[in-house]
Amino acid sequence: MGCNKWSRSDVTQKTTKYETMKKGILFILALGCFYCNAQEDTTQYKLGNKKLMLITNSDADSDSEWDNFDLSDTTESVSKQFVESVGLMQIGANGYLSENNTLALPDNMSLLELDMAKSRSFSMMTSWYFGRMDASTFYISPGLGFTWNSYKFKNNINISTNNDTLSYFLDTVVNYRKYKLRATYIEVPLVVGIRLGSKTQKRVESENGSVQVRVKRDQKPFNLQVGVVAGYNIGSIVKAKFERDGTRYKDRISDDYNLNPFRLAATARIGVGDFGFFANYSLTPLFEPNKSPELIPFSVGVQFNGF
Question: Which helix (H) or strand (E) is 270 found in, with range?
Fold first, then answer.
């Protein structure tokens, strides 16, 4: 009966072949590791429709735009909720409407016509944003701040309070170089908004045994906000500059001038990134009802965020 015989040379050739294959596999693995290092030690994982990057060396991209999150947060919870505070400044022009919602004042109020180019509004406040860090984001934003509204009159008038009513007349004795009423308010705005075009990137970093989830959102999204602003008048003055007998004078006269102590205004804001525009329309009159002319103030201007 015949049988197969294996010689020592056959065994040696077989062993050599396996060793060659083993060396080839190790070489390919080593090459793969070298390639990963060349790519900044980054590995991508796909979880559903989300992509995560595992980075073991974060020195190459450790800028402050990335926000840290604890790994105990899931990738879903990371994107759902966040709170941030932002400084906001508004600079604009003031105006007011008659009770018929027109810029043209009736004859009995014509002396109160404003120089809108010199009637300015200035606001400084802090806003808190509550919402979702998604590409399209709805959020709620309360705030707290101060607003200074000045009203520069076109006519050479003098205003005062007399028997709990506001009186104003054309001054024929003093020629004013400047005469304006300024009111200061502490305000609490509350707006709801939508952020569009905000791209969110997420990544997981591992360094020295610690793992972090980091999130970065595009800093120039499109924002649209609507809401209300409640305010309380904490002070009002008239600032007057005039010249008499060759001498220049400045007067600052504090009074309530029958200004409405409380005010409520509707507000709308639109912007891209940290720059935008705003418009406020008061739902309450500028002066107290039944004591002064009924005038509805408004303001429009530009705003700056992010400080």
Answer: strand 262-272
Which candidate, 183, 181, 178, places its Cα nearest to that of 122? 183
The Cα diameter of the chain in Å comes to 142
For 248, the token pair is 């220049």
From 87, 85, 110, 89, select the one nearest 98 (Cα to Cα).
110
What's at 230, amino acid-wise? Answer: A
Extract the tokens encoding 281: 């329309």
Residue range 245-278, pLDDT digits in tens: 888 999 999 999 999 999 999 999 999 988 999 9
- Provide the residue count of the chain: 307
In the block, residue with structure tokens 């705030």: 143
Which residues does residue 120 pair with via DSSP β-bridges, in sequence order? 93
257 close to 237: Cβ distance less than 8 angstroms: no
Cβ-based neighbours of 155, under 8 Å, separated by 6 or more: 111, 112, 113, 170
Provide the CA 55 distance to its chain's centre, in angstroms.
31
Q: What is the pLDDT of residues 102-146, one digit of tens each?
A: 998 988 889 999 999 999 999 999 998 876 544 457 889 999 999
| Model pTM score | 0.68
3-state secondary structure of 59: helix
Residues of the chain with pLDDT under 70: 1-83, 131-136, 198-220, 307
The per-residue DSSP string of 103-131 comes to SSPPGGGGGG-B-GGG-EEEEEEEEEEEE
199/202 Cα distance (integer angstroms): 10
Distance of CA 42 to the CA centre of its chain: 33
Looking at residue 81, its amino acid is: Q
Residue 253 main-chain phi, psi, to 5 deg: -115, 115
**Other C-beta atoms within 10 Å of 270: how many?**
15
Q: Which amino acid is at 148?
A: W
Please name which of 80, 74, 60 lies closest in space to residue 213, comparing C-alpha atoms: 74
Whole-angstrom distance, CA of residue 252 vs CA of residue 181? 10
